[in-house]
């Protein structure tokens, strides 16, 4: 039987009784119609799974007793950061969901020269909370026990200025890029992958990426939509250097 996996936003410990997040509680009680004594699996995003037993199903609170932590799925040996030019509406949700399934470790929503989406501070906060919820759902569904980090949206230059000399491969997806995924000749254990928005990177963006040491990565001869490009690159890199 399929395991019901539920993310709980606070550290879990064996023997504790926890109240499930409201939406998850409602799903468990009303949609799945589980009852006291039924089994679920909880995770807090730190990498382990906790089998748990439902102990209370009330209208507003579903509770569960936490069992012993067990190791969950390992993360990919290739730590991938996706710096994604913010795409419109549901496309960005799709990117966050699928990138999480594909094992991305971190997503940085990027504002670049040709970004069409306008986000004031309040909207940016709402979008970020929404994207984090999308990633939680993807972890619950895919069996992943570690949540990818999702950063607040930031300008490309501001992100580049934060990069440390940690030895991560720096790759910018460019249709005219000079290298292909399989020609990278191995990768360190970390890679940064920058993807342009719907209109692509502008000249100033490309100059800034180049100045920061990014190589141009080309995914074949066709122009891919932004939501295809990043996901295709993640899959290719996982297949060549990660855990596919
Ligand atoms: N005319 C735009 C250009 O030349 O950049 C097309 C933009 S494309 C719809 C959106 C983003 O997807 C690009 O900025 C790039 O990051 C990525 N992309 C699309 N096709 C690609 C390819 N064949 N190779 C590498 N990156 C690609």
Automatic annotation (TrEMBL):
GO CC annotations, alphabetized: cytoplasm
Gene Ontology MF term list: rRNA (uridine-N3-)-methyltransferase activity
Localization, UniProt: Cytoplasm
Biological processes per GO annotation: rRNA base methylation
Major subcellular site: cytoplasm
Residues covered by the Ribosomal RNA small subunit methyltransferase E methyltransferase domain: 75-238
InterPro entries assigned: Alpha/beta_knot_MTases, PUA-like_sf, RsmE, RsmE_MTase_dom, RsmE_PUA-like, tRNA_m1G_MTases_N
Keyword line: Cytoplasm, Methyltransferase, rRNA processing, S-adenosyl-L-methionine, Transferase
Domain Ribosomal RNA small subunit methyltransferase E PUA-like: 20-66
EC code(s) of this entry: 2.1.1.193
Catalytic activity as recorded in UniProt: uridine(1498) in 16S rRNA + S-adenosyl-L-methionine = N(3)-methyluridine(1498) in 16S rRNA + S-adenosyl-L-homocysteine + H(+)
Function per UniProt: Specifically methylates the N3 position of the uracil ring of uridine 1498 (m3U1498) in 16S rRNA. Acts on the fully assembled 30S ribosomal subunit.
Cross-referenced PANTHER family: 16S RRNA (URACIL(1498)-N(3))-METHYLTRANSFERASE, RIBOSOMAL RNA SMALL SUBUNIT METHYLTRANSFERASE E
Protein name: Ribosomal RNA small subunit methyltransferase E
């Amino acid at each position: 039987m399929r395991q019901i996996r539920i993310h709980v936003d606070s550290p879990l410990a064996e023997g504790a009784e926890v109240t499930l997040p409201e939406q998850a509680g409602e799903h468990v009680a009303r949609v799945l119609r589980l009852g006291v004594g039924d089994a679920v699996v909880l995770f807090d995003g730190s990498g382990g799974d906790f089998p748990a037993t439902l102990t209370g199903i009330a209208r507003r609170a579903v509770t569960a007793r936490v069992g012993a932590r067990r190791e969950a799925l390992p993360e990919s040996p290739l730590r991938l950061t996706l710096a994604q030019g913010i795409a419109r509406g549901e496309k960005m949700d799709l990117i966050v969901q699928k990138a999480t399934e594909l094992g991305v470790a971190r997503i940085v929503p990027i504002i670049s020269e040709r970004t069409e989406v306008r986000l004031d501070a309040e909207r940016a906060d709402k979008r970020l909370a929404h994207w984090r919820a999308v990633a939680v759902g993807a972890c619950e569904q895919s069996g992943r026990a570690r949540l990818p980090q999702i950063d607040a949206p930031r300008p490309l230059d501001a992100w580049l200025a934060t990069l440390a000399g940690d030895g991560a491969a720096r790759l910018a997806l460019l249709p005219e890029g000079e290298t292909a995924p399989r020609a990278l000749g191995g990768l360190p254990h970390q890679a940064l992958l920058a993807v342009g928005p719907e209109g692509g990177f502008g000249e100033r963006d490309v100059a800034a990426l180049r100045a920061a040491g990014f190589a141009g990565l080309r995914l074949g001869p066709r122009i891919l939509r932004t939501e295809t490009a990043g996901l295709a690159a993640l899959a290719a890199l996982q297949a060549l250097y990660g855990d596919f």
